[in-house]
Write a structure and sequence with these properties.
Elements: H1 2-32, H2 40-50, H3 70-75, H4 82-87, H5 89-114, H6 118-129, H7 131-136, H8 143-163, H9 178-188, H10 194-211, H11 216-245, H12 265-280, H13 284-298, H14 318-325, H15 336-351, H16 355-372, H17 381-386, H18 390-395, H19 397-406, E1 412-414, H20 416-427, E2 436-437, H21 443-450, E3 458-462, H22 470-477, E4 485-491, E5 494-499
Parallel strand pairs: 1-2, 1-3
Antiparallel strand pairs: 3-5, 4-5
Helix pairs in contact: 1-5, 1-6, 2-20, 5-6, 5-8, 5-15, 6-15, 6-16, 8-9, 8-10, 9-11, 10-11, 12-14, 13-15
């Protein structure tokens, strides 16, 4: 028995080591192809991490309130080193390690639940051979950390719910939720897709406990103790959001509701399913559906285990579904977590096959997947989507050159929510985050948006993407906003304005303000 449990650790560790090595090779490949920082959000994540210390107002409030904080907290210290900040290597290393953790977690869960190592290998292979997953794990994007934390949370919750002693038994001790609880906290502080995943995992844990003979009351008490961990974390995040941006939760204002699925759940689901087919090919999603059914059915006819909790990973579909119903433009990247969920569920399904057929079935499934969506495909959807901002990078060179030649050291008023990626581009021209006045500067930002002239020599405005940024909105609704400024450069949807020399500053107008600026953007 002891040898079996040791193998349940050694086998997954070997799988995780292979995944880490393959992931490092992929990261080098995409770096040499110039794609590591191609996605605008990849660069913006580095800026948010950097600004915790490199800011006009450094401190904990710089973590932000739209993007969840864990990815930036993990990278906050490394990116203070200019080389890590400009290359993104420290964040890429976090992504590679996160995928190794995800592979270890899913392999261990499947092995402990079924005794099959093959199922975990199949899940890890499907995960790492998908070109879009492979690309994202080679960048500073936050999806890899989502996979690592949610897979680990699901695995640890599964172990917890099958090892928790029944509280109705004499002298029973209170179940220890520390490992599962901390993993849930890490997950819900990484990306919003983790919210429904963790909730679904706790709900499935309740079902497993009842199947083990717990009364409904005892099962509820047990999962209540586990649920308190992510709930406290979410409460802390909401308070931080209220302090930093004045709202407990920012759910809009950073996109134009132009999706035809607005208010139409069926069309929204069709968009989610179409995205999954595009990313994973036409076969694997249906294999995952079969695996889902097989795992759900096995939960009621086999020995009780934590395997059903792998189904919780499919709950990530709730986020793009909700976003599209609200009118958010379709982003193919939003389906990538569902690709990871399919990989895990297919691996679990393979583990339920007769032992002698698992290797052949797994090899066939992986071969079909790699044939339909080829690893390292330069035309894979997320790679293509990540480069849609490339023409604007070229166009903004005129703005960069003007700033390089004329900047006088005065702060540049900029919406980090919309131009965080350009702020990172400007790092190559010698600019630091503290050279910009942005949303993270709290009351200074709020004053500057209403009355820029006393505090801002320069204003940098995103004028088109997502309907323009907060400063563009203010300029559109307040005719006095740019009074006293001249347009000195433009390019790539960005306009650069400089305060006119000799312009007579007047007292702030007593007229009512045109309105509050748009909130900072995130998770675009």
């Amino acid at each position: 028995m002891q040898e079996s449990r040791q193998f349940a650790v050694r086998g997954p560790l070997v799988v995780a080591a292979v995944v880490a090595l393959f992931g490092a090779i992929a990261a080098i490949y995409y770096y040499r192809a110039g794609l590591s920082l191609a996605h605008y959000d990849a660069r913006a994540h580095l800026v948010v991490a950097r600004r915790v210390f490199d800011s006009l107002t450094p401190g904990w409030q710089q973590v932000g309130a739209v993007w969840l904080p864990l990815p930036h907290l993990l990278n906050a210290l490394p990116v203070q080193v200019d080389w890590f900040y400009r290359t993104g290597f420290s964040a890429v290393a976090i992504s590679v390690l996160s995928m190794a953790v995800a592979s270890f977690a899913i392999t261990r869960l499947i092995h402990l639940a079924t005794g099959s190592l093959v199922g975990g290998i199949v899940a890890s292979a499907l995960l790492m051979l998908n070109p879009d997953v492979l690309y994202l794990q080679s960048t500073p994007m936050t999806e890899p950390l989502l996979f690592g934390t949610t897979f680990l949370a699901v695995a640890l919750i599964a172990e917890w719910c099958v090892s928790t002693p029944n509280s109705q038994a004499p002298n029973s001790q209170r179940p220890n939720t520390h490992a599962a609880g901390w993993s849930c906290i890490a997950a819900v502080l990484t990306r919003y897709e983790a919210f429904p995943i963790v909730a679904a995992a706790i709900g499935l844990a309740f079902i497993v406990l009842v199947r083990r003979g717990f009364s409904l009351t005892a099962a509820f008490r047990a999962v209540r103790g586990l649920a308190l961990w992510p709930l406290w974390a979410l409460a802390a995040f909401l308070v931080n959001s209220k302090v930093t941006v004045g709202a407990f939760f920012v759910s809009g204002g950073f996109f134009v509701a132009e999706n035809p699925a607005l208010g139409d759940p069926l069309l929204a689901w069709a968009q989610v399913w179409e995205g999954l087919i595009t990313l994973a090919g036409p076969v694997i999603p249906w294999v995952a559906v079969a695996g889902f059914i097989a795992v759900a059915a096995a939960a009621f006819r086999r020995k009780i285990s934590g395997l059903p909790l792998v189904l919780a990973l499919s709950a990530c579909a709730a986020l793009p579904l909700y976003a599209y119903v609200k009118g958010h433009p379709v982003r193919i990247r939003y389906d990538v977590p569902l690709v990871a969920a399919c990989a895990a569920i297919v691996g679990a399904g393979v583990a339920l096959l007769p032992r002698r057929t698992q290797a052949a079935a797994g090899l066939l499934i992986v071969a079909i997947s790699a044939w339909q969506v080829r690893p390292f495909d330069a035309r894979s959807p997320v790679v293509v989507e990540s480069q849609r901002e490339a023409p604007n990078q070229v166009g903004r060179r005129a703005v960069t050159e003007y700033l390089r030649a004329h900047w006088d050291g005065q702060p540049i008023l900029t919406s980090m929510g919309s131009l965080g990626h350009y702020m990172h581009d400007l790092a190559l021209a010698g600019f630091n985050v503290r050279d910009f006045l942005h949303e993270g500067n709290g009351e200074i930002w709020k004053y500057a948006v209403a009355h820029p002239r006393p505090v801002a020599e320069w204003i940098l405005i995103e004028e088109r993407a997502e309907g323009g940024d907060a400063l563009n909105w203010q300029a559109t609704h307040d005719r006095n906003f740019l009074r006293g400024y001249e347009r000195v450069a433009e390019g790539g949807n960005v306009g650069l304005f400089r305060r006119l020399r000799g312009f007579q500053l007047s007292a702030p107008s007593s007229q009512p303000e045109a309105g509050s600026p748009k909130p900072e953007a995130g998770n675009r």
